[in-house]
What we know:
There is one protein chain. This protein is of the alpha+beta class. It contains four helices and four strands. It has helices spanning 9-22, 30-43, 46-58, 71-83; strands at residues 87-92, 98-110, 116-122, 127-132. It has a four-stranded antiparallel sheet. The mean pLDDT is 82.
Amino acid sequence: MLPPLMLDDAEAVAIAVSLRSGMDAYSGIGAAAVQTLAKLQQLLPPRLHKRIGALNAATVSLTGPAERVNPEVLMALANACRDCRSVSLWYRDHAGRPSSRRLEPLRLAHTGNRRWYLVAWDLRRSAWRTLRVD
């Protein structure tokens, strides 16, 4: 349980819109986002229901479907960045071939096209690498 949040109108609307727009961006959190949005809407005053409803009704996404990213992978990489820990990972390269890397992660990057990247130092190749997280 978390302590109650004190939000002004703009902050409450921003959270509701973010929850709705991000529901499909990550695998594994869609249900939690829906539940959180439902709880938030129960607490909001009627004047904000109208604002959020108008924004949702009048907004369309031009970015297309988001790439699915596992939130546990994002958290593990974020923790490794924060704690300056190296990571080992297996992935498929651009040609689809399996590969492994030993990396020192620097940052996670999220682009406007709804993709996540890891910027890291490759210990075996002594070079910077940018890898898609999804």
